[in-house]
């Protein structure tokens, strides 16, 4: 009997052992499968995260605002430039209208998305400020809308808002320049041709005095024409990037000023005016393009004299050089520049008084524009202040490299 009991106990022990082994194996298998599944899941998560990061990097690499909208015009994806355009707000989940708050832009986007065709349109916004254009009401944009090919039922659209305000302004300046230049060139040409006609048609040739007077006027205006063309070429060179190839060499500013004073000597004596030079240190040598510096300083001093030709004036030239900067103040005690005109005097062809009379040929309105370009080409700045009859000063600050 005890033997039977022993056998039963042994068999049940064996069964338990087998069952335990079986269960452990099952458990290990399940654990293994779970670990494998977890690893796969983590891998997918990591891959998705990496893809998202790449997508974000790619979108943020664009300078232009870019969003992706769903069929209801709700923004699904935005880039960093969009946030910047929307004053730092995130516009994800908002409609295009809520995001961009500009009727013209939204209307175009709406028409473009409903057409389901890729469309690009240039918009000039004049009446409202949009984006970061706070100083001027006018801004220019390219609105580029296209459907994104996808298998989803709801079509997605990508919308790019490209700010082309700077290019638009440059184009505008160029157009204005051509219009102004044509006008300025036509005026002396018309006068020359009028006088020539008189000389040919009338009997003025018989009157040498009248003929000389006509010819003097013709010469004056042809001089003006060639001055205009020279100055336009100088501006165009300075603007074309040739400034980057300035012919920089060390030269003495004392020498340049002494040459300018000599050139202006007849004008100084005619109007009984004087130039006071003040150099700290006594001798100043700078490195730059002597041709443009000479032209800039000549224009400023000549302006002071010619704008006050009726009265004797004093022009002061104060130059100071230290390790960092060269500062030049050119001042006169003449009639000054009215404050309403001050913001515009560096613009091309801008003159406070327009001299269109035949005998009063005063200038081209390009002088200060050349001065500004020349100083800026050397990394400097120029500003003007004026108190009529007391002091008009043009101040130049140029870093010494
Ligand atoms: P312009 O060839 O007519 O001299 P500029 O560009 O040199 O053209 O100067 C623009 C305008 O600025 C001048 O027409 C003049 O009205 C004004 N201006 C410049 N410098 C002076 C000055 N020192 N005093 C008074 N007006 C000045």
Could you explain the architecture of this structure?
The protein is α+β, with helices and mostly antiparallel strands. The chain has 3 domains: 60-163, Beta-Lactamase (2-Layer Sandwich); 169-240, Signal transduction histidine kinase, dimerisation/phosphotransfer (DHp) domain (Helix Hairpins); 244-401, Heat Shock Protein 90, CATH 3.30.565.10. It contains 10 helices and 12 strands. Helix 5 packs antiparallel against helix 6. Bound molecules: adenosine-5'-diphosphate. The site of adenosine-5'-diphosphate has 22 residues, from helix 9 and helix 10.
Brief summary:
This protein has 401 residues and is an alpha+beta fold.
CATH class of the largest domain: Alpha Beta
Portion in helices = 40-55%
| Order of neighbouring strands in the sheet with most strands | 2-1-5-4-3
Instruction: Sketch the topology as an H/E string, one letter per element.
Output: HEEHHHEEEHHEHHEEHEEHEE
> Structural class from helices and strands?
alpha+beta
Radius of gyration: 39 Å
Choose one word for the global shape.
elongated
Could you tell me the mean pLDDT? 88
Tally the helices: what do you get?
A: 10
Unreliable sequence segments:
none
Total E-strand runs: 12
The CATH architecture name of the largest domain reads 2-Layer Sandwich
Please identify which CATH superfamily of the largest domain we are dealing with.
Histidine kinase-like ATPase, C-terminal domain
Main sheet specs = 5 strands, antiparallel
Share of β-strand residues? 15-25%
- Cα separation of the termini: 114 Å
Stated plainly, the CATH topology of the largest domain is called Heat Shock Protein 90
The hetero compounds bound to this protein are: adenosine-5'-diphosphate
Work out the count of structural domains: 3
């Amino acid at each position: 009997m005890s033997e039977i009991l022993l056998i039963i106990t042994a068999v049940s022990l064996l069964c338990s052992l087998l069952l335990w082994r079986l269960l452990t194996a099952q458990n290990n298998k399940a654990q293994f499968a779970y670990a494998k599944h977890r690893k796969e899941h983590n891998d997918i998560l990591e891959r998705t995260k990496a893809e998202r990061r790449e997508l974000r990097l790619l979108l943020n690499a664009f300078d232009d605002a870019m969003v992706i909208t769903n069929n209801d015009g709700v923004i699904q994806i935005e880039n960093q430039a969009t946030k910047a355009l929307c004053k730092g707000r995130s516009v994800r989940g908002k409609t295009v209208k809520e995001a961009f708050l500009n009727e013209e832009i939204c209307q175009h986007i709406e028409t473009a998305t409903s057409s389901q065709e890729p469309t690009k349109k240039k918009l000039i916004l004049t009446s409202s400020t949009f984006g970061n254009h706070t100083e001027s009401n006018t801004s220019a944009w390219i609105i580029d809308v296209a459907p994104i090919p996808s298998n989803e039922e709801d079509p997605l659209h990508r919308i790019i808002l490209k700010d082309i305000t700077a290019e638009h302004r440059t184009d505008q300046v160029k157009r204005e320049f051509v219009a102004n230049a044509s006008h300025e060139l036509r005026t002396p040409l018309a006068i020359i041709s009028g006088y020539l006609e008189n000389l040919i048609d009338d009997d003025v040739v018989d009157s040498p005095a009248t003929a000389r007077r006509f010819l003097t006027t013709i010469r004056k205006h042809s001089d003006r024409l060639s001055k205009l063309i020279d100055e336009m070429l100088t501006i165009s060179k300075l603007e074309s990037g040739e400034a980057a190839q300035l012919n920089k060499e060390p030269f003495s500013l004392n020498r340049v000023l002494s040459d300018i004073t000599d050139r202006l000597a007849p004008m100084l004596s005619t109007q009984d005016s004087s130039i006071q030079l003040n150099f700290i240190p006594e001798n100043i040598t700078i490195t730059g393009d002597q041709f443009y510096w000479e032209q800039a300083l000549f224009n400023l001093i000549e302006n002071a004299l010619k704008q006050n030709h009726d009265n004797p004036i004093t022009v002061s030239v104060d130059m100071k050089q230290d390790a960092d900067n060269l500062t030049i103040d050119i001042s006169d005690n003449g009639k000054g520049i009215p404050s309403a005109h001050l913001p515009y005097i560096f613009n091309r062809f801008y003159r406070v008084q327009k001299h269109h009379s035949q005998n009063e040929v005063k200038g081209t309105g390009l002088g200060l524009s050349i001065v500004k370009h020349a100083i800026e080409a050397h990394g400097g700045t120029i500003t003007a202040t004026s108190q009529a009859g007391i002091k008009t000063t043009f101040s130049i600050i140029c870093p010494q490299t």
